[in-house]
Amino acid sequence: MVDDYGASFPVDAAYDKAIELWCFYEVECETFDRIVCTGGFGHDGGAMPRGIYERGAVTRNARKVLRRIDDMAINEHIDRKTMEKARRVAQSGRFTYGYCQEIVARAERRHPDRFRRKVPQRP
């Protein structure tokens, strides 16, 4: 398969799932940032935190989402090497927020419960 930039890469189901997870990370974090941050937008279109309190909130949220996608990767049997390769591609600047939204929406249509939080049931 060849991407929009002419780079070829092997078609791999685990890699595709990893890309979807990193796009989910991007969408979740950027959506939170746009709600919390009051510092305007950066050159890449991302919301910028103003001050240490906003930066702290953004960092805590990013760590929480990262733990969540790590757990989802383990549940879907995606190894760390594949996740790292997908992260480099997804966070290289090639994937915009809008493109990641499309990828996540497509994944949610195929598997509606994939990104939903699992709420533990009380006995």
Written account of the structure:
By secondary structure, this protein is mostly helical. The protein has one domain (13-38, 46-110). It is built from four helices and no strands. It has helices at 13-36, 52-75, 80-90, 97-110. Helix 1 (13-36) packs antiparallel against helix 2. The N and C termini lie far apart (48 Å). The mean pLDDT is 81.
Offer a quick outline of the entry.
The protein has 123 residues and is an all-alpha fold. Helices cover 59% and strands 0% of the residues.
Outline the secondary-structure elements.
Layout: H1 13-36, H2 52-75, H3 80-90, H4 97-110
Helix pairs in contact: 1-2, 1-3, 1-4
Rg (C-alpha, Å):
16 Å
| Helical content band | 55-70%
Find the structural class using helix and strand composition.
Answer: mainly alpha
Estimate nothing, just give the exact number of structural domains. 1
Task: Kindly list the characteristics that best describe this protein.
123 residues, mainly alpha, 59% helix
